[in-house]
Please model this.
Amino acid sequence: MIKFNTAAENWTIVWQATLDSTSTNPLPRQYSPTILTSPIIAVGASAVTQYWQKQAIGYINQEIEIGLIGFGFARSTAKRTIFSDELTIINFPFDVNYRLSVDLFKNLATVVTLSVYEYTGAITP
Model:
């Protein structure tokens, strides 16, 4: 178990995106434009279509750059579900620099607004 202070000043927005799967379904995997360093993030998503509100809409995963030639980033086995209209706190297992990948579900024909916050405060075991 870890301890961290959830106060607002300990969170920084690192990625905001509008993902539109209405014309391209399934939407190709999306990648965060920045490299993250904290294993703790918060993910908020909202779907325009009312049917998808409060539903699981896809997965977010930690992608780690590894030193094996020809491989680049490797997806960890820490895939987490994204829920529409909820804020989810995720504690990834690897404390390394990484990027995020997002996969929306195949039949999700809607527009999703995604916000990712990185925890910047102290983490204690």
